[in-house]
Amino acid sequence: VHIAESGGGSVQPGGSLRLSCHVSGAALDEYVMSWYRQYPGKAREFIAHIDVQDTGWVQYSDAVKGRFTISTDNAKRMIFLQMDGLRPADTAVYYCNAGNTYWGQGVQVTVSS
Question: Are 40 and 101 contacting, i.e. CB atoms less than 8 angstroms apart?
Answer without folding.
Answer: no
